[in-house]
Structure formats: C-alpha cells, structure tokens
Amino acid sequence: MNQYKTFPQAYALIIAIAEYEGVNALPSIVTKDACDVASILTAENYCGYEASKVKMLLNSEATLENIKNEIIKIAQKATSDDSVFIYFSGHGYNKSDAANPDCSLIPVDFNKPDGGMLSATELSSLLSNINSERLLFIIDACHSAGVATIKTFTANGTLGFSDKSLEKLSQGRGKVLIASSRDSETSIILPGDKNSLFTKHFLSALKGEAGSSNEDVIRVFDIFSYLEKTVSVEAATRNHPQHPVFKSNLENNFPVALRYGGIIKQVSTGETTINLIRDKKLEDVIAELYPAGPIDQDIWQRAGGDISRLKLNGTGRSQWFSALRTLNQGGGGENITLASLILEIKSDFPNHPSLI
C-alpha cells in the first residue's frame, strides 16, 4: 500500500476569469484550467497540498478586493520556508505607454465603481509582503480567443503583459514568474483539448512528468524546463509561436509540490533498477562550485563555450539554469559540450564527491 506524504508548508491562490463584462469573454476552458490545477495540487497521489490552504477565485469571485485580500492573507501566514503558488488565468492590460509601461491584471469588476485594475506595481508590492522565498506566480493570459481592445479604456492600450511588467512581478528574493507566452505572442487552446495548451502541459508537469525520478518533490526549474520544451514544440505543430517566459531572482531551486505524492518511483532496465540522475543534480553542483555563474573562473570559456551566446541575468544559479538549458538545446558555443564542461570542472575540483 502506498504511503503518500503531504506537502503542508504550502499555500496556493488560484484565480481564473472567463466571464468578463466590457471586454471579450474568454472560453470556459479558462476556469476549467483553474479547477484542474487545484484538483492536482490537492490530490494525495500528486502534489499533496492541504485543501484548506488552496483558495480559488473564479469569475464573479475574482474581484479586485478579493484578489488583494487573499494575497494579504497568504502574507500573514507564509514563512520564508513555505512554498507559495499563485495562478492567474484571465486578461491583462498593457497601457502601451513608453513613459509608464506598467501593466495590470484585469479583475472581473475592473469597470465597476468599487472595482478597478490591479497594476503590476501594486501587485509587486503585495507580493513583496509575502515572506516566502519560494514563491511561484504563473500567468496564463493573452489567450488568442480573447485578444481585443478594452472599449472603456484608452484606445492605445492592448490586452497582455509587457516584458518589463513581468520583470517587476519577479522582484524580491525567491520570487519566480512564469508566463504562458512572450509579450508579442498569444496563448492558444487547441481544438478538442480540455485545457489551454500551456496549462495542459503545466498539469502534466505537476503529475510527475517534470522533475527527477530520484526526488520526491517537483522543483521550480524542473517545471519551467518541462514547459519550455513541450509548449513551444506543440504550438509549432500548429504554426503558432508560443514560448513560456521565466523571470526570477532566485538562489535556490525550491520545491513547488510533491512528485507522485512523495513516493520515489524507480525505473527498471532489465534486471537492474536504477534511479535516473538528471541535469538538476549537475546544476546544483555547478551552482555550488561556481556561484557567480558561467563567467566564474572563466569555466564556460575554458570548456569551449561562448559567453556572448548566453543570457546572463539574475543570480548565478539562474544563470546556470539558463546556460545548461541552452547547452542541452545545442547552443552556448560551437565547441562546448556537456562532457567538455564536466571535464573542466573536474580539473578544478578533482576530489569533489559528486564528480568522482
């Protein structure tokens, strides 16, 4: 009999709005996405969240006041070691103002006298009050079925989130923002699918497709690495560009949820049962040995890489996460391989236990 664990040090806020007034309504799949995310989070054989710590705001419940109040409630409870997950599916508003590029989440009552929009600036301030250094905020918005102009606002505005606003929402230690698409793209729902493309693959990640089989948790880098591969590839089969976005100020690859209810599943090959050792372990070792990132001790260049081919933003760990993804996809320089990188690391640290 499986002895599933729980993931008690975690809080979740799930927000989804399909039934808007004054702006294009979104497909009902938007709220189904949210319900499915909540269901997987609280499933004992998957993520193991306590149901009492998962709050949902759907359609008419997702007012400006309610959204702000629920974030404040999490801030009052969560400690630095708690995982916090916030999911928003709905419309965003981009003012398209170069002088003030702030964007906003659009609550259901945005056009009511006692409602309004939740700007990225105000939202960032609310998130900064959450002490958790393990906060993941996912925005699945800009659905292609809902792209339109908000008639009650300036004609210069468009639906969506600017890259700068996404950066703002990831400010603060241990904060991660994942958006379903770039600011120049739209998120799609494929015909016949029961979920939007992004959330379909996010659900698969939570069901254990992401993560290392020798761990009982799913970590934040595991989730994005999985989404980056699956979402863009399936979107491309429909000739539609959709690339998830990752923004962070991250030092630790923190756990987001349990994997398979906290039970480590092994993979059998013939008569031998082995645990798969994935890039996450290597990433942890490299980030420990070269905390300043790929430029530390010129390790990337010494291994044959080209630093100019990398995006060196954020903490050293974030840089390594990005660099190893790039390397896995065949980039990072013509002469670098994973083998050449490991050989150079071994020459620097010949007695490190993880490299022997």
Give the helix/strand layout.
Layout: E1 10-16, H1 29-42, E2 54-58, H2 64-77, E3 83-90, E4 92-94, E5 103-105, E6 118-119, H3 120-128, E7 135-141, E8 158-159, H4 163-169, E9 175-179, H5 197-209, E10 217-219, H6 220-236, E11 245-249, E12 255-258, E13 267-269, E14 272-274, H7 279-289, H8 299-302, H9 316-328, H10 338-348
Helix pairs in contact: 1-5, 3-4, 5-6, 7-9
Domain Peptidase C14 caspase: 11-254
GO molecular function: cysteine-type endopeptidase activity
GO biological process, one term: proteolysis
Structural commentary:
This protein has 356 residues and is α/β, with parallel strands linked by helices. It has 2 domains: 10-261, Rossmann fold, CATH 3.40.50.1460; 278-348, no CATH class. The protein is 32% helix and 17% strand. The chain has helices at residues 29-42, 64-77, 120-128, 163-169, 197-209, 220-236, 279-289, 299-302, 316-328, 338-348; strands at residues 10-16, 54-58, 83-90, 92-94, 103-105, 118-119, 135-141, 158-159, 175-179, 217-219, 245-249, 255-258, 267-269, 272-274. It has a 6-stranded mixed beta sheet with strand order 2-1-3-7-9-11, with helices on both faces. α1 packs parallel to α5 (197-209). The chain is globular and about 65 Å long. The relative contact order is 0.12.
Kindly report how far apart the N and C termini lie: 37 Å
- Give helix % range: 25-40%
The tally of helices reads: 10
* Form type: globular
What fold name goes in the CATH topology slot of the largest domain? Rossmann fold
Radius of gyration, taken over Cα atoms and rounded to an integer in Å: 21 Å
Domain count: the total is 2
Overall pLDDT, averaged? 83
Class based on secondary structure composition and strand pairing: alpha/beta
Quote the beta fraction: 15-25%
Largest sheet: 6 strands, mixed
